Amino acid sequence: MKTLRLMAIIAIFLFAGLTPALADTFSLTVPAGTEAVMADPQAVIPVTVRNNGPTRDIRSITFNINTAKYSFSAATVPPAGWCVNSVSAGSINFELVQAGGACSNGSTASRIDPLESVVFNIAVVPVAAASDSTDSFSSVSVSTQSGFTMSGTAPSWTRRSLETSLTASPASVGTGDIISVSMQITNRSTSSKPALSSSPDPPSPSRPIVSAAGGPFYGATLLTGSLNATVSTVNAASTAGFPSSGTLFIDSEEICYSGTTATSFIGAVRGCNSTTAASHSSGSIAYGLDPFSLAPGETREVIWTYNADAAGEVYFDARASSGASSSAASRSNSVFIGDFTSALSLTPSSVINGQDITVEMTVTNNGNSALVNIAPSLLTGCAGGATETFVSGPAPPM
Question: How far apart are CA 121 and CA 124, in angstroms?
C-alpha cells in the first residue's frame, strides 16, 4: 500500500511539471458578406481585432497585403486612441496615441487588453482583375511593448468585378401606378462581361405591396413624336446604347428594327414576335429587349417595372451578375405608395455641434381630388446621443 501511494505522488508531480504555458493569441474577423469592388477608391475592410489573451495586451498591429491585388490607402481613419504609424502600398501599421500626440507602442488606455476587441476600418484600393476572387491579408502581426508577437489567422472577403446602384422612381406613387427600378451596372474588371442579369431577377421588394410588371429591359429612351400602327421609323430622343439592330418594347407592342440613326430606329417591323401593332403617343417609353455585354469600364442600364398594389413604403434589393462575376449587394431608395404621401429630407446629412439643419417635407397628391389646408405635425427628434433645438418654421406657415 505504501509503495502504491508513493508512485501516485511522483506521477502527479511529473505531470504538473510538463504542463505547457498557454500561448497568447488574437483573432481577426470581418462581417459576413464583406465585399470590395475593383477600382473603388473608397473601399473599406472593417476588421475586428480581438485579444484572446490570456496575459498580454496589444499595442501595435501591422497589416500586410498583396500589392498585385490591393494597395492600402492613406485615407484610413484609425479607431479612437490609435494612429497610423506608417503606411505604404503593401503595409499599414497602427500604434497607440501617446499623451503628447506621438504615435508609438507605449501603454495607454486604448491598448487592447485580454478579451477586449477593437474595429479597424482599413481603406484599400482593390486592383482590377478578370473576375471575382476571395481575398485576404497576406499576413497580420500584433505585438506588445516588449516586442512579443502574438499569432492569429487573417480573415477573407470577396473582391467584386461589377459595380451597381439601384434607383426606384418616382419616389411617390398612388396605388395602381407603375414603379420603375433601374440598375446601373459598371464593369470594373479587366475582361468583357456578357449576358448581364440581376440576382434575384427581378429585384426583390422589401414588402409584398408591389408586383412585377415587366422587364428586364436593356436601356430605355423616349419617343419624340407620336407613332401610328404602320410607320417603319421610330423617332426617339436617342439611340445611344441600343444595338444597331434589335427589338423595342413600347406599351404592349414589340417592334423589330434593322438600323439606327442618332435619333431614330429604322426598318421597323410592327407587331413583331406575335404582338399587335398599335399607336403610341409622344413621350412614351421605348425599352430595349436585347441583352448586352459590358466592356471594361463601360456602364449600362437594366430596368424593371412594378405595379404599386397597396399603400406603404417599399425598396428593392439585388446584385448584378454575369456568369461567375457579380456586384456587391445593392439597395434602392424607398418609394412611398398612397394617394397622399410625404417624405422628409435633412440638409446637410452630417453636422458639427451648433450647426443648423434644414428639414424639408415633400408632400405629393397621387389621388384624384384636390387637397386643402395641408399642415405638418410638429417635428419629433429620434433616439440618439444628440439634442436639437427648434429655430424656425414651417415655411410656408401652417
Answer: 10
Q: Give the single-character DSSP code of 14.
A: H
Give, in order, the Cα–Cα distances in Å from 292 to each of 16, 18, 21, 256, 257: 71, 68, 62, 16, 16
Q: Residue 18 is which amino acid?
A: L
Give the tens place of pLDDT for each residue, 115-141.
Answer: 999 999 999 999 999 999 999 999 998
Q: Cβ distance 315 to 205 under 8 Å? A: yes
Q: Give the C-alpha separation, 218 to 291, whole Å.
A: 6
| Angle CA 361–362–365, to nearest 5 | 135
C-alpha torsion sign, points 28, 31, 33, 35: negative
Is omega for the bond preceding 46 within 30 degrees of 0, making it cis? no
Q: What is the DSSP string of 217-249?
A: E--EEEBSS-B-SS-S-EEBS--TTS-SSEEEE
Q: Which three cell numbers stand for residue 191?
A: 475582361
Please identify which residue in the block is written with the cell numbers 482583375: 129
Per the CB < 8 A criterion, the answer to whether 227 and 250 are in contact is yes
Q: Assign 3-state DSSP to the chain and report helix, strand, coil percentages, each to 5.
A: 5, 45, 50
pTM across the whole model: 0.77
Pairwise CA distance, residues 115 & 126, whole Å? 32
* Secondary structure of 57-72 as H, E, C letters: CECEEEEECCCCCEEE
Give me the phi and psi of 15, to 5 degrees please: -65, -45
- Rounded Cα distance, 163 and 100, in Å: 43
Q: What is the DSSP string of 88-110?
A: -SSEEEEEEEPTTS-EESS--TT
Per-residue pLDDT reduced to its tens digit, 267-311: 999 999 999 999 999 999 999 999 999 999 999 999 999 999 999
Whether 81 and 110 have beta carbons less than 8 Å apart is answered as yes
Instruction: For residue 188, count CB atoms less than 10 angstroms from its CB and return exposed for 0-12, middle for 13-18, buried for 19 or more.
Output: buried
